[in-house]
Amino acid sequence: MADKKISELVDGGNIISGDYTIITRNNQNYKVDLNTLIDTTIDWSGITNTPTTLSGYGITDSYTINEVNTLISGATYHPLISLTYSELFDLYTNSLLIPGQKYMITDYRTIHNYLDGNTITGDLNLDGVIEPLILLATSINTFDKQAYSELFPKDIIYYDITGGDTKDIAFFSIGDEPAPISGLTGIIYYRKDTVQNVECWYDFRNVKFRRWIMNYPSWVSGTSYINGNIVNFEETYYVCVKHTSSNISPDLDTINWAYNETLQDLYGIYWGYNRFKLLFRYTYCWII
Prior knowledge:
Layout: E1 20-25, E2 28-33, H1 34-37, H2 65-74, E3 81-83, H3 85-93, E4 102-105, E5 112-116, E6 119-125, E7 133-139, E8 142-143, E9 146-149, E10 155-160, E11 187-193, E12 198-200, E13 212-213, E14 230-233, E15 236-240, E16 257-259, E17 267-268, H4 276-287
Parallel strand pairs: 3-4
Antiparallel strand pairs: 1-2, 4-7, 5-6, 7-8, 7-9, 9-10, 10-11, 11-12, 13-17, 14-15, 15-16
């Protein structure tokens, strides 16, 4: 319904001559003709007796200033504490962490043993870069599993300050009492690059696998082959998956021979035949 003058809403709608009202503006009273009042714009500063609180405007789901002040006064600020791995590990082992506190390991670096089969070659991969990690203490002796990297802030990282499973010979010595390798500063046991959508259950940015140039013999018809033998047939490598002395070439004998795309790079990783399939799955994850 269109705006109407007050006189049009009373007395059956008959307009009464001289309709007016009194309004106050800047502490001054003014007589205003109702015929023009509806078309008049009044500045906010000219409106008096306005509410001074949120509740006065009918807003009931907000904090009062006293409630906000109470929350602020009760809050505890925990500035980031930067420590070396050794310093932070001492706090961890002695249950001296501050729950809710964030700590930065300033000297974290991924290092690991190079492996050859089920044995340690005796040398370390020390090529990992220094990557400061930020951890959140969830109690006096525990951390949240997710860590934050300043170098790769968009990565999702799971970190273990202890180095994880002591049976993992990539990070521990072999023996009745496994010891962490020299210089170990914990391990990243899961990492996801959310930009490239690459994820692995190890630090794929720094872990390296030992690789050798492959020069496998050519396949010879009628020769006896056993599981795990690798041959070169027409510049393509095949893996024997079943004892055979067949005269059928590997490209056609899919029962006894398997084609693996990873082998075609002419470089590979040897980790024992019993781990062959698992190994190349990891290799793909690293190459992506």
